[in-house]
Amino acid sequence: MAQARNTMSLPDRYCVMGNPIAHSRSPRIHTLFAQLTGQALVYEAELVALDGFDAALRQLVQTGTRGMNVTVPFKLDAARLADSRSDRVLRAGAANTLVVDADGRVHADNTDGLGLVADIVRNAGVALAGQRVLLLGAGGAAAGALAPLIAQAPALLVVCNRTHAKAQELVAQHADLVEGSATQLLALKAGALEGPFDVVINATASSLQGAAIPVAGHLLRPGALAYDMMYGPAAQPFLQWAAQHGAQGRDGLGMLVEQAAEAFALWRGVRPPSQPVLAQLRSELDAH
Ligand code: ATR
What is the pTM of this model? Predict the structure, then answer.
């Protein structure tokens, strides 16, 4: 009994699973959220072997972990292995948040796109409704963003990807969401794009590979928002490209904080204040 009582009084445990994971800012973000909301929890980084996600997840559930964030390269595994999935996960095929219930059943959700939209609309103050939006990329990051972007009712949403078939597939998976709405959803090759776009979102890994930005700068309306889902050095080529073409650049640090806030709300039923945490992370990032 005494032991059971002790166990029950331990703070709930959460973690982020990935490989690599040492760079992850999620423990910092969730610890700040917990402090700001007065929630008793611990949040740790779990380095998972590349072929070991299944076993690691089972082990974490068995030892009482209440929720997980999942990052590269396990988002597809997380979606596949969960016992239930949100509509967002079913469409994207990827999950970044797992919620474990009292019976050890795992529910998968994807808060990446919600975080992106919250950062653009709330933090940057840029409306998406009625706008012309270009989404670059058709991998996991782009897939998670598409349904939340559609929910903002842009006039036009174009997906453009190096491998065109993947953009077409992603658009086909979301076509029913725009049926009967004022949003036009298209997959277009880079050469077929016609500007100007009000918002261009980079969800490709091209910067990481030192490759050029995959579309022409004249597609940006002057003053357009050019958003890179990455932050730190990885976002710099795209942000420089944006500045060269008269656009307003924004990196993905706010998206990171906002997707974490959505996950925290799913786990704890409490919405943490994201603005002070974003300001804190920005100052920590700038100091390095
Ligand atoms: P993530 O989960 O981060 O989205 P991913 O699923 O591997 O990672 O997707 C990477 C995205 O970056 C894809 O859209 C990829 O294009 P392809 O589908 O053609 O592979 C895009 N990408 C990667 N390197 C690129 C490059 N050098 N130029 C343009 N796009 C690139």
Answer: 0.94
Contact 253, 228 (CB under 8 A): no
Token pair listed for 10: 């331990």
Number of structural domains found in the chain = 2
Amino acid letter for position 71: T
Rounded Cα distance between 84 and 106, Å, is 7
Q: Are residues 215 and 128 in the same domain?
A: yes
Q: Is the CB of 162 under 6 A from ligand 1?
A: yes
User: Do the Cβ atoms of 245 and 253 come closer than 8 Å?
Assistant: no
Same domain for 247 and 125: yes
pLDDT for 200-251, tens place per residue? 999 998 777 777 888 999 999 999 999 999 999 999 999 999 999 999 999 9
Active-site position among 25, 30, 66, 75: 75
53 token code pair = 């996600």
| Closest by Cα among 28, 57, 59, 61 to 45 | 28
> Is 166 a catalytic site residue?
no
